Every structure is written in structure tokens, then in C-alpha cells.
Amino acid sequence: QEEVVESGGDLVQPGGSLKLTCTTSANITSFYVTSWYRQAPGKSRELVATITQSDWVTYADAVEDRFTISRDIASNTLYLQMNNLKPEDTAIYYCAADTKWGQGTQVTVSS
Question: Fewer Cβ close by (within 10 Å): the C or N end of the chain?
């Protein structure tokens, strides 16, 4: 069964950076869409960034110009580089590959 596993969440100060990693057990190019979502306490899960099979990239307005989604085909890995982090970025971040979801990784932005 295909697996999706996230890692890289941590406690970071406002203005800091963090890079999340998502590894897939299947060939990452076999997925039509790979994405990062997040869910803050008391809020609904929201889409953060998406990269398609043809490398089309989209971002949520709240993270545009601060976050970068990328993938490494050789290692079947999806990344989310997060810069200039803000307290409102605090959430559990999830990786999704088509309909496969990981368990999430906690990102906390606080001084």
C-alpha cells in the first residue's frame, strides 16, 4: 500500500525558516497532484501549495512569496520551504498525493 510520510515540523521563531519533507513509497511522478495542506487549531484544513504532474505550481494567497513547493523525482520526495514564518502559520501540515494523506507534522511559530 502506498504511503505518504511527512517530517520536518518544529518550533521556530517569527521570521524564521523551516523546510518540510514528504516521502512517498510510490513513484512521485505517478501522482497527478501533490500538495501541502495545513490545519490550525479550531480551523478547517486549507490548501497551502500544489505541484502537478506537469510541474504546474499554485499557492494560497497567504503564503505566496514566502513558501516554495518543490519535488525531487529521484528520491520520491516533496518539499515545502517556508520562509519569513508568522505566528499565523502555526498548524499541522499535511502532505497529500492524489488521495493519499500523511499523518501530519506540527509547525509552531512563536517567540
Answer: N
Q: What is the pLDDT along the chain (111 residues), one digit of tens a residue?
A: 668 999 999 999 999 999 999 999 888 888 999 999 999 999 999 999 999 999 999 999 999 999 999 999 999 999 999 999 999 999 999 999 999 999 999 999 999
Nearest to 8 by CA among 81, 71, 75, 110: 81
What beta strand segments (E) does the chain contain? Answer: 4-7, 11-12, 18-24, 33-39, 46-52, 57-59, 67-72, 77-82, 91-97, 100-101, 105-109
Question: Distance from CA of residue 96 to its chain's centroid?
Answer: 8
